[in-house]
Amino acid sequence: MHCIYQGKGDAILFIHGMPTNRMLWGPLIQELSSDHRCFAVDLPGMGETPFVPYRLGYLDRQAEQIEQLRIQHGIEKWHVVGHDAGSAVAVQYAARFSPRVSCLALMSPAIFPDLKPFYLLNALRKPLVGEVLAPVLHLIFWRIAMRRALAGESNETPLRAFYKPFSGFTGSWQLMRLVRWGKPQDMLGEIPAKLAALLMPTLLFQGSRDVLPASFVERAASLIPHSTVVTLDTGHFIPLDKPKDVAVCLQSFFAENSGTNDTAIRATNRSAWSSHTVPAEPLPLPVVL
Q1: Where are the transmembrane segments (predicted)?
Q2: pTM above 0.85, yes or no
Q3: Assuming Cys at both sites, which of 150, 158, 182, 287 could form a disulfide with 23, CB separation 3.0 to 4.6 Å?
């Protein structure tokens, strides 16, 4: 798993979604790295991490690799931030390695079993249809859909970086292989139960113009015991659209919740977290519009 890092201070791990890579976090890391040691990974098949075939336990294996990164860099605890499908990896890691997560932040969390894949990518997921239409759909997705979603000169560099693993003659079929990750019910079926067992303070971001249903953030907030929701005037790619606003929200949230997770863990029966959580007093956080 390819990883970059920069900065100093308390550690933050950033996990991107699909089909982006670590470059999603570039502007946000620039805002945070003066006070935080920022880590950003490339998930399999994106950025510089080789593709890994999907199979049973895929999310758990990603969590294990992230834990190895934490050990390798000598980090006792870190904040974990996920976007889109990267939120599912973040939840899996936070659920399995809870004592190692100070705070959790999920942006546009694509984490529920009733998730509807983006319609262009959904066509690629269909056998035979995907193989035949892959070159055309690939062109439409990158030249039109992604360019509209990432409008603006400042987003040209990350857009090129997102596209790079899917460039060349075989790029369209590489994208097809990436998005064929199975049925949402199978891949994400256990996520709701894991949300209810998370003890760490959690910040949920929703873009007011996001293509992902706002109900996903609302449902996540209703399940996670110590959660706060922030709505920003953005599209789906929140950390690229409003890096300064996101940085302010994260810094405030991390500072206000320092040590909260340790207190909750000490007050909880670790063998039955979901039924013995101790509610924390909700902390005020401004909604940025």
Answers
A1: none
A2: yes
A3: 158
Q: Are strands 3-7 and 10-15 parallel, antiparallel or unpaired?
A: unpaired
What pLDDT, on a 0 to 100 scale, did the predictor assign at position 131?
Answer: 92
- The fold of the 3-115+183-275 domain, in CATH, is Rossmann fold (3.40.50)
Q: Please count the other Cβ atoms lying within 10 Å of the Cβ belonging to residue 183.
A: 11
Count other C-beta atoms under 10 Å from residue 145's C-beta.
16
Helices 58-72 and 86-96, packing angle to 10 deg:
70
pLDDT at 264: 47
Q: In which band, very low, low, confident or very high, does the pLDDT at 15 lie, cut at 50, 70 and 90?
A: very high
Model confidence pLDDT, tens digit, residues 208-230: 999 898 899 999 999 999 999 99
Q: Are 101 and 93 in contact (CB under 8 A)?
A: yes
Rg for the chain, CA atoms, rounded: 18
Average pLDDT, the chain: 88
Tell me if residue 52 falls in helix, strand or coil: coil
Count Cβ neighbours within 10 Å for each residue of 54-89 and write b for 16 or more, e otherwise: beeebbeebbebbeebbeeeebebbbbbbbbbbbbb
d(CA 37, CA 10): 6
Mean predicted confidence (pLDDT) in 28-43: 96
Q: What is the pLDDT of residues 146-180, one digit of tens each?
A: 999 998 778 899 999 999 999 999 999 999 999 99
194 phi/psi in degrees, rounded to 5: -70, -35
Buried b (16+ CB within 10 A) or exposed e, 279-288: ebeeeeeeeb
Amino acid at 93: Y
52 burial level (CB within 10 Å; 0-12, 13-18, 19+): middle
User: Above 90 in pLDDT, residue 287?
Assistant: no
Hey, is 3 helix, strand or coil?
strand
